[in-house]
Amino acid sequence: MATLIAPTNHSPLEDAEAIRKAVKAGWGTDEKALITILGHRNASQRQQIRETYYELFQEDLIKRLESELSGDFERAMYRWMAEPSERYAILANVAIRHADKNYDVIVEIACALSPEELFIVRRAYHNRYHHSLEEDVSANTCGPLRQLLVGLVSSYRYDGNEINGKLAQCEADILHEAIKDKNSSKDEEVIRILTTRSKIQLVATFNRYKDDHGIAITKKLSDEGSDDFHKAMDIAIRCIQDHKKYYEKVLRNAMKGAGTNEDALTRVIVTRAEKDLNEIKEIYYKRNSVHLEHSVAKETSGDYKKFLLTLLGKED
């Protein structure tokens, strides 16, 4: 379930005019008004507001918000206001082109989204950056990691319910041999399995791995230590197996220890608020014995904190 509950009777015209008043030059920005309006509108409603705002004022709303806001709040609002497929395209591009390349985000997008959603993101990426996601991933990686990531982002998996038990057993053994002592001769087989099989077939394979070898495949990967290829493999498996548990772990790690990973925190809350953030919140509470909202409130401040709490369904 989503944490965002948008009103059914909103008026794009009234919202656009109220936002204009909140950002009007000379008056200072009314961040509270922006959060109150935009933090309670779904993707379709936000798009209507953007279109109405442009028609009324001949100005791109997102660009105006960029100029009025700053820091983590601005980045969170920018991602929230982007159309969902465009948002994922932006996240992917930033992850690829950042000096410290964040391959986690690429794997997450490729494996947590449905085949159809991923296809739409690839099209949005192409339209925005004038080259393909696969092309940029390939240009910024090498070796087995490149093969795995390109395979994941270009995959269009079967999305049905059929499972082949014999195939699950066979491929569980292949994965076991590949992970054991990091047998690189099996890398191509691992890539083939992870990039072509349906998610439900892969879950059956991972379950068979645990049944046959007495350990979860992700635990085995952790025990063996990780280079970039095996880290990407681990994230792919976690996302395919249970993306909500994966996102809980991302949130937990973002707020663990000294400092906060605001990029990860923003990414999960913004991308899941209209999907399954309520379930992720429940998993977080069961795992940490503290509500996600309390952790976020403790680790953030100001308008950024207020905005995230709004998307979490809890007003500050």
Automatic annotation (TrEMBL):
PROSITE patterns reported for this sequence: ANNEXIN_1, ANNEXIN_2
Keyword Nucleus part of the UniProt annotation: no
Domain of life (superkingdom): Eukaryota
InterPro entries, alphabetized: Annexin, Annexin_repeat, Annexin_repeat_CS, Annexin_sf, AnnexinD_plant
The keyword RNA-binding is annotated on this UniProt entry: no
Pfam families (alphabetical): Annexin
Keywords: Annexin, Calcium, Calcium/phospholipid-binding, Metal-binding, Repeat
Family: Belongs to the annexin family.
Entry note about domains: A pair of annexin repeats may form one binding site for calcium and phospholipid.
PANTHER family associated with the record: ANNEXIN
Name assigned to this protein: Annexin
Source organism of this protein record: Stylosanthes scabra
Organism ancestry: Eukaryota, Viridiplantae, Streptophyta, Embryophyta, Tracheophyta
